[in-house]
Amino acid sequence: MSFSSYIQGIFTGLRSLAGGMRITWREFRTAKVTMEYPENRKTLAISDRWRSELIMPHDEQNEHACTACGICMINCPNDTINVISATTDTIDGKKKKILDKHLWDYGSCTFCNLCVITCPSDAIIFNNDFEGAVYDRKKLVHQLNHEGSKLREKKGEPVKVTREGTTDKANRQE
Ligand code: SF4
Ligand code: SF4
């Protein structure tokens, strides 16, 4: 290598270094767009359209809209839903099917939304609570109907759903 090409190499290296530093300084002064999770939990905005966890809204009387018809279970392409029904006697002596357990497996759901769309009672919805990680796979099976809940007798307004308190995580299968 000649002396002149050696010097030229030094200048090429310095020019390249200056170019890199120019980009570094420019990015150093621009507003940060990365978010630090979970520190940003309080300000984190997840789209309402995000399908995360299937839930069954209950009202203040602990009543839901599920008639245990099983349509969601039949339509689920992934065998993710298990509707367990029971029968009860009505006042006029007839037998009536009621919901015992509505089980949904977070671990096998593809979030296709077919169950929600085809439910004739609008009894289930997806929330956008994405923090569903657990250490035990068995805990991915959620019981959607709350303990002691029952079918809402009168068809009224849909239950107002808030992001907090819509799930009964304590009811998850152990
Ligand atoms: S979203 Fe799709 S895969 Fe998941 S439970 Fe509903 S129908 Fe089944
Ligand atoms: S959630 Fe809807 S489709 Fe599924 S069993 Fe209940 S009423 Fe029927």
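^ iron/sulfur cluster complex. Residues 160-174 have pLDDT under 50 and may be disordered. Residues 50-171 form a domain with the Alpha-Beta Plaits fold (CATH 3.30.70.3270).
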